[in-house]
Amino acid sequence: MRNIFKRTAVIFLCIIILTSAFVFNVSAAGTIISFSKKNLTVGDTVTVTVTLNAGEAMYSVGCVINYDNNVINYTSGNASGGAGSVSIIESPSGETKVSYSLTFTAMAAGSCTVSVIDCKYATLGNNGAEEKGLSGASATLTVNDAALSSNANLSALSLSAGTLSPRFSASRTSYTVAVKNSVTECKVFATAADSNAKVEVSGEATLKIGKNTRTVTVTAPSGAQKVYTITINRSETDEVTSSEETPSEPQENKLETSIEGITYTVATDISGVALFKGFTASTAQYNSEEVAVATDSDGNYKLYYLKAPDSDALTPYTYDEENNLFIKLSYFTQGENSYIYADIPEGKTLADEYYTTNATINGNEVTCYGKSSSPADFYYIYCFADGRYGFYRYDSRENVMQRYPELELLDKEDLIVEDKPDNILSRFKTLTTNAKIIIISLVLVLLAAIALIVLIVIKIVSRKDIPDFDEDELIMDNSFDNITFTDVEINNTSVENEEVEADNEN
Q1: How many CA atoms within 13 Å lie on the side-chain side of 185?
Q2: How far apart are CA 58 and CA 127, in angstroms?
Q3: Which of 113, 258, 280, 436 is the most buried (most CB within 10 A)?
Q4: Residue 79: C-alpha distances to residues 52, 74, 117, 119, 449 (Å)
Q5: The dihedral of CA 428, 432, 433, 435: what is its sign?
Q6: CA 335 to chain centre
Q7: 430: which DSSP letter?
Q8: pLDDT in tens, 371-381
Q9: pTM higher than the cut 0.85
């Protein structure tokens, strides 16, 4: 019994030690490096995020980031240094996991490996501050030759006399101007948004009475062109007809819309916009005005492009005509491909092993799906890309989207729904792999503890079944006096003695 007790105790201790080690390995400390995008063109910027995960409180951290300064150049962030190597030295306030972002600019075409080495941190131990190390990390990004710009917009347009109507907008290409008879000449001043674009002004600066037409042609480095037309009306008399000299009530701009208190302008020209793969430029009506849109071949999406007042960039939106509401398009761009986040069609669902969750991808909060048997940093997202709907798997660690045709939609009505209660087992199936490991380990420890307690109880009870003895009575028992001892010798000597005695008697 004592041996069984010892063996059980040893097994119990082994289970505790193995369980602790196993759980520790699941959440092992280390370093993670990720990019805001992995495929760049010369001139692009990329954010490199370094995450240090110690699993315990950190009060100072340090690491070195090495990179090829011929391909990328450090611009800003929580680091010091340059020329191929920068250092992060920070003082967290006891966090177990910290992240730092660094900005780099693509300088030349090529492949660049960014490595995080010499990762160290300080924590508080039994004997005061202790310095410990973390494993490093590395990842590679690619820089391509800069593509020729297709930006053929103007950033500014004005005249030596008169006022443009409506007021200038890079996306609007037609304007009118009214001047009085005494204005005999009108010069045009135009500035291209791209400094490498060419601007050509045509038409006579000298004005005749009546209608005069001036054009501004902008040629982008790629060869794309955009023509702005200005119609100048010179009056026959000196009566004041110019809006410049006779202020009038400002006319409502039907192309403007307010979103969260900010006034945006709906673009009428998107010739300089890089459209999503599978989309083509078209037109649509907004407030009785013709505007530019981009649509896919099957008409699933109609994208309007809006410009903020402090930017020339055009951002894609969808338009809810019923509520007269523009909704910013939520999408992910990787190289030449763009993935529009979409909702699963009504009446469709996924297998039970997938659960709904949320993830933040490039600043967008996205509804996606997790899988209990997959790593926690993988998400499954339903997207529209290259003219098709489908599932994609997003690697949050590498910031990469990959097609995932293995995941298919199921019809809700075709599913065989079993009448199962919401019990512990069904809830257990929805847990992540790490959570399942921890729970199973705790159950094993609990079972080992119960087995040990049962053995201890059995040992205690078995001792009570042994009868008690009076030691004095046992030692002084008179029965020893009635015992007769007989010596029997069978050796040869004894036999010979008996024969001698017999002879003497005879």
Answers
A1: 2
A2: 16
A3: 436
A4: 14, 9, 14, 14, 51
A5: negative
A6: 17
A7: T
A8: 877 787 889 99
A9: no
